Amino acid sequence: MKKRSIFTMISLLLMGIIASTSCKKKSDEEVQPSKVEVIFNNIPYPTEKFMRIGYTLKMWEYEKEGLVLDTIVVLDANSNVELMTIGKDELPLIYKDPLPPNAFFAVNKLTHYYTSIQLPIPLGVEVPATISHQFVFRDTITNQEVTIEGAVFSPRINETPVVISSPMKGSRWIYINQSTSGYHFQKMVFFEGQIYRSEIYAFDNLQFNDDMSEIYEGDPLVNESYFNYKDTLYAVEDGTIIALVDGLPENDGNAHNIIFNTYLEQAGNYLSLDIGGGIVVSYMHIVPNSFFVSLGDVVSEGDPLALLGNSGNSDMPHLHFQVLNGPDIIRSESVPFVLKKYTKIGDLFLGPCQDSTVYNAMMEQFSILKFD
User: Fold this and answer.
1) Cis status, amide bond into 98, omega within 30 of 0
2) Tally of structural domains, the chain
3) Are residues 114 and 143 in the same domain?
4) Are residues 244 and 365 in the same domain?
């Protein structure tokens, strides 16, 4: 399989779930700042390249006014320097009413629009004390450009993310992770009158062969064809097993052919580890009957827990891993985290690179890694 087809396979995971004539600016009387606001402001976390600042915006239903969003400009509110520009073709997923129906619960009726952004600040560059935005719209009635300013917030620069070890060992791993404004980071679930974001800082992972060109060998419909299948999952910190579900069947390779009876079954076989301080980590899609631990067991960092599998809502064998602020894997909030140590050995598109060991950070989206 060539790298182009590898990207196609990775895209399956990423999909599990992306000329003005004049300019005017609406006055405060026309659009109040509260119509565009930051409602979730997450702790920033570093990768090997950036300090990443994640947050969620709540916007008014601007399409009802004939407006189409073209561009989001993120600014240093003090210097007015542009930090990032998101063009029309790069806009993140925007949730709006009506939401697609869900087979397992009644979704909320939305009266606002919602979207999430990750702002990457290069390492070594000071994080702005205050961030603001310009939202550039096209008025489809007058064919004019309309710019709205708002969504001012202060990054939580004095707080630090959760620090854990990797749940995998070995080499040639790619952690399709939270270091992007797409995929998991856009996952919000609207029900019970609430917004749940249990997956926004989750990652999935795959493993390459020696030359970093393939993620499986043989029939893609056979789980054993994948290099990561049945790899051991390890405790990322000392803790207690507080949830464990076993006995659910696996998909056949990339067939995605399991039918779910409940929303929770999409996690497949999984376990949750309470590591203290209100933090719970969850491992999903585990091979049935492969657990080395039981409910209530106390484990130490590095202890083997189970085997990586393909159960639940899974496009191919992989680990779905998330760090939460509570025990409920749906209703708890996903929180940013970093790994104590990893070594970058390559890039999906650029190939192998000189080994570079990184401490207390996550990695960029397509970095290829090894762990001691």
Assistant:
1) yes
2) 2
3) yes
4) yes
List Cβ<8 Å contacts ≥24 apart for 209-216: 209/172, 210/172, 212/172, 212/346, 212/348, 212/351, 212/352, 212/368, 213/1, 213/2, 213/3, 213/6, 214/1, 214/6, 215/1, 215/6, 215/9, 215/10, 215/316, 216/1, 216/253, 216/316
Same domain, 112 and 239: no
Pairwise CA distance, residues 269 & 59, whole Å: 37
Burial label for 177, CB within 10 Å (0-12, 13-18, 19+), is buried
Looking up residue 63, the CATH number of its domain turns out to be: 2.60.40
DSSP string, 336-366: -EEEEEEEEEEETTTEEEEEEEEEEE---TT
Quote the tokens at residue 176: 């399709």
pLDDT of residue 30: 45
| Of 184, 65, 15, 17, residue with least CA distance to 116 | 184
* 167 and 282 inside one domain: yes
Six token digits for residue 75: 């600014």
Residue 178: per-residue pLDDT: 74
Rounded percentage of the chain residues whose pLDDT exceeds 90: 87
Q: Are residues 133 and 76 in the same domain?
A: yes
Domain check: are 143 and 247 in the same one?
A: no
Q: Residue 294 has what DSSP assignment?
A: -
We report the CATH number of the domain holding residue 278 as 2.70.70.10
Q: Are strands 320-324 and 351-361 parallel, antiparallel or unpaired?
A: unpaired
**Which pLDDT tens digit goes with each residue over 13-61?**
555 433 333 333 443 334 444 689 999 999 999 999 999 999 999 999 9
Query: Contact 293/271 with Cβ under 8 angstroms?
Result: yes
CA distance 255 to 221: 6
Which of 153, 179, 211 terminates a domain? The answer is 153
Q: Does residue 145 sit in the same domain as residue 184?
A: no
Q: Residue 92: which domain range?
A: 26-153
Residue-wise pLDDT tens digits, 216-245: 999 999 999 999 999 999 999 999 999 999
